[in-house]
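Letters spell out the chain; backbone shape is given numerically. Both lines appear below:
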Amino acid sequence: MSGPAVTFTRAGLLRGARQAAPLVIGTFPFGLVVGVISDAKGLSLLETLLMCALVFAGSSQLLALELWTEPAPIAAATLAAFVVNIRLAPMGAALAPWLDRLRGVRLWGSLATLVDHSYALSAADQRRGGRDAAFLLGVGVALWTFWMIAVGIGHVFGAAVRLPPGHPLYFAAIATFCAILVPIWQGVRRDLLPWTLAGVVALLAWGAGLGPPWPLIAGALCGAALGAWLELRRG
């Protein structure tokens, strides 16, 4: 038996954009930091905007910038971004009641602009019985638009005011990753052991002399494997 009909309307698109407004306020400073660090790493404004337009995921952008050197480690940065962004796969699966009924630009546009914030709002709307899949795209496009503006302003600011190496602003990347952990923590019973294992393995890999992104990948894979095993045992 099929579920309730899913729609895709202009009203849903605008409603999503309106509900994204409070999130824009929180992500704008994050975008400014990405722009400043991009300039400090030697990326031009065009290169920075292209990166943000094609890889709309602030955490993976910061990680790639942390790894950025001359010559650019393309393979390592790509792999690290993939590991960080793999969390988007289960988000898409959770939104399948909407996404499965979309095609073409509507589907690919929704997926291209899917981030943690748009997922959270859309999942909540689904739980309330929402059937307008354009809501997801509206949130995503609004966040993407203001993200591009924030990054551009940050890059221009960084070019005008050169920050010295070791400036506190560069700690924003680490602080952001720490902040991302807070909303995804599911409690001691579920997450303490996998997270601890991931951290220990990453530190051991770093201590063994492995450079980025291998400690991150080793820790993530070990932590994820333990987490999956524990879930299977509970099931």
User: Anything to note?
Assistant: The chain has a mean pLDDT of 84. The two ends are 27 Å apart (CA to CA).
